[in-house]
Amino acid sequence: MALSETQTIPSRFGYADASPTRLALADKGVANGIVREIARRRVKVVIPLFLCSFATYVAALIALSYFPGLVGYKIFGSINLAYVLALAQFVITFLTAFIYAVWTRRAIDPLVADAFARLGSAPAAGRVR
């Protein structure tokens, strides 16, 4: 079955024959400013989160490699400090993801919604909460 000239093929973000909207130069400037602000805010949070997470990872590796007597210290029954350090890595990973998700919802999502409102379009893959 061939497509006629009036039929369109649905794509992931709309219709394949939909032409891209041309933005005015002022709208592009606003969009670029919002993107720069999002990047600036993101760096202020991502770098400290990464450094804290990475520092605990490296500290655990150093402790496990160079201080076997220390990490072999029994805390409760057969649970020693090495097990606690390994479990702490999971906790820190999930805590980092949770902090980033909460922060993004509060600090970045309003900027994204503002960008879509100023540009007069809706998000392509769904709505911004």
Describe the fold and architecture.
The chain is mainly alpha-helical and 129 residues long. It is 66% helix and 7% strand. It is built from three helices and four strands. The protein has helices at residues 25-66, 68-71, 81-119; strands spanning 10-11, 14-15, 74-76, 79-80. The strands form two sheets. It has a two-stranded antiparallel ribbon with strand order 1-2. Strands 3-4 form a two-stranded antiparallel sheet. Strand 1 (10-11) and strand 2 (14-15) form a beta hairpin. It is elongated, with a radius of gyration of 25 Å. The two termini are 41 Å apart.
Question: What's the arrangement of secondary structure elements?
Answer:
Layout: E1 10-11, E2 14-15, H1 25-66, H2 68-71, E3 74-76, E4 79-80, H3 81-119
Antiparallel strand pairs: 1-2, 3-4
Summarize the structure.
The protein has three helices and four strands, in the order E-E-H-H-E-E-H. The chain has 129 residues and is mainly alpha-helical.
Number of E strands = 4
Into which percentage range does the β-strand content fall?
Answer: 5-15%
Counting DSSP H or I runs of 4 or more residues, the number of helices is 3
Helix fraction, binned, reads 55-70%
Key words describing this protein structure:
129 residues, two-stranded antiparallel ribbon, 4 strands, disordered N terminus
